[in-house]
């Protein structure tokens, strides 16, 4: 069984939730689990070391840059890499060149996993946090409107939503950058639009995510923020990733969960127990 769900001291369940927003990678899907290591290796393959800088320090710098921008469209991380390379005396290259290389590296891993699910050699559940489908069903039954708001390109997320069999919960409400160079897209912009379309305030929204961007933005707009600190190293382990937990507590998460296995506790924490649609 998963560890006890953690709530911030003084946290009170919201009373009028209407919408639930989910990040995709690491929150509902493990299809891209390991993306961070793929990106880290890309950074390290291009970043020149500074005089006296050892491999561990360089790796730490790259890791910080990647996770500081986690949740934003990938082009922002690639722009950071491009700037770091120049700062360190390397050759100037456009961010989109790094973006293309990263996409190629990541695509090999993602395509192999998608094929496993399509061929039946692995189940969709093998690439989802435990309890994912039951949680989506329960939130939908409670009358909430469900959305995916991702930093991954919308076309890829839509394909993966279909592969993992959860498209029925979201319909057309799957959002992401329109392409690799889309710098105008933001999760906050989508969440603001969701509330505006319904004439609702921030307290009508609960946001589930494993990146600090969506958690921080949720709190800034008065929404409830649930940090999904899933262990992506061992699928289905039920353990909280301590680094994620600390990072997401640090930007104001109201609750921290390792996955969705303790569904009654999650629903209780959101004030949805026995709520009728």
Task: Explain the layout of strands and helices.
Elements: E1 6-7, E2 19-22, H1 35-46, H2 55-68, H3 74-87, H4 95-119, H5 132-141, E3 145-149, H6 154-163, H7 167-170, E4 174-175, H8 187-198, E5 205-209, H9 212-220, E6 224-228, H10 242-250, E7 255-257, H11 263-269
Parallel strand pairs: 2-3, 2-5, 3-4, 5-6, 6-7
Antiparallel strand pairs: 1-7
Helix pairs in contact: 1-2, 1-4, 3-4
Give an overview in words:
It is a single chain. Helices cover 45% and strands 9% of the residues. By secondary structure, the chain is of the alpha/beta class. The protein has two domains: 172 residues, HAD superfamily/HAD-like (Rossmann fold, 3-Layer(aba) Sandwich), CATH 3.40.50; 85 residues, no CATH class. A seven-stranded mixed β-sheet has the order 1-7-6-5-2-3-4. Strand 5, helix 9 and strand 6 form a beta-alpha-beta unit. The longest helix is centred in the middle third of the chain and has 25 residues. The two termini are 29 Å apart. The mean pLDDT is 92.
Brief account:
By secondary structure, this protein is of the alpha/beta class.
Biggest sheet features: 7 strands, mixed
Distance between the termini: 29 Å
What's the helical proportion of residues? 40-55%
At CATH level 3, the topology of the largest domain is Rossmann fold
Strand % is 5-15%
Class of secondary structure makeup: alpha/beta
Strand order, sheet with most strands: 1-7-6-5-2-3-4
Task: List SSEs in N-to-C order.
Answer: EEHHHHHEHHEHEHEHEH
| Radius of gyration from CA coordinates | 19 Å
CATH architectural category of the largest domain: 3-Layer(aba) Sandwich
Low-pLDDT runs: none
């Amino acid at each position: 069984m998963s560890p006890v769900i953690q709530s911030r001291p003084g946290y009170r369940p919201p009373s009028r939730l209407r919408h639930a927003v989910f990040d995709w990678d690491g929150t509902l899907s493990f299809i891209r689990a390991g993306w961070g290591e793929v990106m880290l290796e890309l950074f390290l393959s291009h970043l020149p070391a500074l005089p006296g800088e050892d491999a561990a320090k360089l790796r730490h710098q790259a890791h910080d840059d990647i996770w500081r921008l986690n949740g934003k469209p990938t082009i922002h991380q690639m722009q950071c890499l491009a700037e770091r390379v120049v700062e360190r005396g390397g050759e100037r290259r456009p961010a989109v060149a790094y973006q293309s290389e990263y996409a190629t590296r990541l695509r090999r891993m993602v395509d192999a996993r998608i094929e496993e699910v399509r061929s039946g050699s692995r189940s969709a559940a093998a690439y989802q946090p435990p309890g994912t489908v039951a949680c989506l069903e329960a939130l939908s039954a409670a009358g909430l409107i469900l959305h995916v708001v991702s930093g991954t390109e919308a076309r890829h997320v839509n394909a993966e939503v279909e592969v993992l069999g959860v498209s029925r919960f979201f319909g057309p409400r799957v959002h992401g950058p329109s392409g690799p160079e889309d710098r105008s897209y933001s999760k906050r912009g989508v969440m603001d639009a969701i509330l505006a379309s319904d004439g609702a305030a921030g307290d009508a929204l609960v946001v589930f995510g494993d990146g600090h961007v969506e958690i921080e933005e949720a709190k800034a707009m008065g929404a409830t923020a649930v940090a999904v600190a899933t262990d992506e190293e061992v699928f289905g382990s039920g353990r909280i990733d301590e680094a994620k937990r600390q990072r997401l507590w640090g930007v104001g998460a109201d609750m921290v969960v390792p996955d969705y296995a303790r569904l009654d506790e999650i629903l209780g924490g959101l004030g949805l127990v026995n709520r009728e649609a």
